[in-house]
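Morning!

As promised:
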Amino acid sequence: MVNGWIGRRELAKLIGVGGAAIAAGLPATVHAQGRRGTLVLGIDISDTISLDPARMAQYTPPMTLNAAYSSLVAFNAGNYVDLVPALAESWQRAPDDKALRFKLREAKFASGNPVTADDVKWTLDRVKNLKGQPALYILNIERIEVVDPRTVDLFLKEQREPVLGALASSTNGILERALVEKHGGTSAADANVADKATAWLDTNSAGAGAYRLVNWERNVQIQLVRNPHYWGGKPAYDRILIRHMSESATQLLAIQRGDIDAAFNLIPEQIATLKDNKDVRTEGLVSLDFVYMALTHSPELNKALAVQEARQAIGYAIDYDGIRDSLLGGVATRSASFFPIGMLGSTEKVTKEIGFREDLDRSRALLKKAGLPDGFEFEVSYGNAAVSGLSYGVLAQKLQADLARVGIRLKLNPMDQVNLRTQYTTGKSTSVLTFWNPAGVRQFSWATATVERVSKRLNWTPPADLVKLVRDATLEEDKAKQEALWIEYQKRMVDHANLIILFQPIYQTVVRNTVSNFPLTAAGYQVELENARP
Amino acid sequence: MSAAAEPLVAARPRPAALRWLRRYGLATLGGAIILAWIVMAVLAPWVMTYDPNFVDVANRLQPPSAAHWLGTDALGRDVMTRIVYGARISLSVGLVVVLVGGLFGTLLGAIAAYARGWAEEALMRVTDLVFCFPPIILAMAIAAALGIGTVNTVIAMLVVWWPKFARLARSLVITQRSLEYVEAAQSIGFGPVHILLRQIIPNAVGPLIVLVTLDLGQAILVFAGLSFLGLGVVPPTAEWGAMVAEGRELVQQWWVATFPGLAILTVVMGFNFVGDGIRDWLDPHARTR
Amino acid sequence: MTRYVVSRLITAFALVLFATLVVFLIANTVPGDPALAALGDEQASDPAAVAAFRAIYGLDLPLWEQYWRFLQRLLQGDLGVSIATRRPVLDDIVDYAPATLELATIAFFLSLAVGLPLGILAAVRRDSWVDHAARFVALVGVSAPTFWLAFVVLAIFYGHLDWAPGTGRLDPIAFPPDRITGLLLIDTALVGDWETFHDAAAHLVLPSIVLAASTLGLITRTTRAAMLEALSQDYVRVARAKGLLARVVVTGHALPNAMLPVVTLGGLAYANLLTGAVMTETVFAWPGLGRYTFRSAVAVDFPAIMAITAIVAAIFVLVNLLVDLSYALLDPRVVRK
């Protein structure tokens, strides 16, 4: 092997083909029959910039990172509320109640060396000091102390504030200190300029996950091989190939031919054509992402939108079911407010009870109440992208037609990504149609975002009692009480009507039936590769 | 012609009408195509039964049928109606870019060529600069700076469109200015402006007309291309390039992308046929046959 | 002569620099801040993080200083670091250039191989059905929008007939050869990997046909016009009068003189192909410079945009220079200033 890149010969040996076949010249394309033991995924990984966990801020790298690294704690697929042990066997409050104490299990890195508390401290220090986006999620950790080789204490700034959800994120996957330091890594305070390990980490991993990263070829593929020392048992595959396929039509053909085992980016029209195909099945997963329309409160940008009833009128004029059924093939759901279904306090029932729905009469009545019986005009900005196969342009035109029914004239303003983000982040957008996906699963992150940075973008000063409500819900430890608080929060947000949820995608992944277990998850990394089984 | 040498070019005697058809048949066809599009574009609101922006998602992606001759698009809008309305945008944009850019460029080129000296040099260098620009980057930069929209895209196109007219005008004026009738006019005492307008330009106008005609098709192509990339018109305005972009992924629902592209093809072909025909008509060598 | 060349080279260099300056200025009027788009959502709202990012890329410096730095680096061969991919732009370009080079070259030869004979034939058999057919084909090639032609060709030959492979340079699960030149046909041939060679060649068919279409039209028309011009010259009449065979007159006398405009056009056309493949590359998911250009423009990625402008401008200016030089060599009247 050269630098971990596998040649055809090695692959042939791995999949157990005899020497004669090698001598005869194995074809470069690997067909379905001959590659038991290798899992091939087809997905668009063009957004990958780095595979260094401490620098990760994109959409697709977590899939790889979660396979290569284990964190202290984890979520089970589909459950985003209860944490389960991973590298940490158990955890509790330290005797003096000033820290969280984690007891590590006996686990080994892919190199065979044991996972120690020192590695944990080094990893988390490095994340903090590299000052990338992942550092923002563990700001609450003041310092880390090693108690003994299998025990580590996390001292928090705010004792009650939950930090476990952030720890479950693959950005906090534990690295093997000795190995990364050998390649220029450092966790010192000046790590953001002194650390040189990123280039090595882009094509290698130093983790304790089920698989080990052996190569990343930009916009071609990512290769992972089995970690024989994995603490969770023997991983089911010898090798995982994540192949870059930017065109959904290519993924469709590849999965039909058996060239890939799973396709992630098919659009509803294409999935419909696979309805009668006996070799594949479609797995749906309710994601934690959603597409929403943000409305400004600033009268300088739009006088009408500054009026609460006018915004509410927009919420009641949209044909949500039409969007879901006709434009998304019925494969989507919708939360009541900026808080996806699947988190504690957000369910489809809640949406039905307190969320917006199509009610044109109510919309017109609200417009009258707002003093705008003939409707009003406003402008929406959006970028050139698509979610679940539905482009913003098409969605915006549908909204335009919907709102016109009550006299609201929507002007469309397509923009490029840079201008859009600048305009929105600096609070100069009248209205924006965009996408929210969480970097990790933290129960409070949505609510905190809405009353902090998102509110600034909307030129909105959230009322003090709403901010307190969010704080209380974040710190509340009793589940039932917490749920009630979150529902109350959502009621208030629907009332303010500045963030209108349009749909929450149910991602359709098409999987070949040769893979028996393919646990999808919405927790950022899309699929639990460590539990995939033929 | 001796018996031993074969005719180099087929010059068999034919009835005049047939010969005219052979030479200008394609041009007439092109003219007819363009005329048809213009008529359709002008009469669109009266002839088309559907509203080009009427969204009906329940009816989306319907194949061509009696109700919708060319099918419906991703939002249930009638494709044929949108194509006809799209003709209005394409034809007007083409006209504006070529006429304005052409006028500006021609005047600049002619004046610079007649004035000679540093003016001519400066013109050459400026046109060189524009030529070596990647047009995509320029268009996108202008779109990013000014915002997406028809007017801004037209501005971006104008910036890159005038130089070729300037160059052509310059070379035509150069060939003309040394001709005898110009010297004669100068010796009689006509001023430079008079000579430029009354003597040089009328004689140079032929190739310019050819370029204008051909360029109308080019401008439509370029605008459609920019709309395809996401610049150009603002939705929901119907425009051919944007319609092809919306149907790009829909291989099964081929009508969404195919028909708008066919529209572009026929219009541009029409202009090219006509332009070729005019060029042939002006070609002195052609006349001798 | 050498003075002419030198003066042209200097002007060429100045032009390239000026082009980058213009692009730089335009790109800076864009109200968007590339830092905000490149950072994650939370970091983008953190002024300290944004400021740190901008400092790394020198975005907080005054405009003239940013441009000055760009010039300094350019003269050292350093094209800067891309804001979108966080990699040196030179690495990006070296990565993507061979794909475009391979495609453009194949397309160019295709259009020559078909366009030249077609044009000559059309001229020799003027106004016959051959002429009309050739002109029709040429005109369709020039009139069809590239992005549409790409879609139609893909839909028919890949989507419905399954004769051609899909998008991209290789089959999704093929193993690319080790990179020697980056040109797949050469790299696979050098190691004898004929299966992948076949795959790469198959993937080149459709996009090169699409890319060749417009150039084909141009070459056919120009060849035809140039041949017609040459055939009507006096020396041709003399040759005919002398009793030479038509074929000899055509190939020996008319053709060489007709080639000059064709050669110049060919040079410009090749430069055009290299730099104008954005549409084709987008539809065929071809990882080349065209797509990179488009992506960089969309992301307002200053270093990448300026590097590409410099390269494209350089290509055009150099090709122009070569064309003018060939004129100068063949026609001494041009050099006189």
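The longest strand of chain A covers residues 499-512.

Hope this helps with the figure draft.
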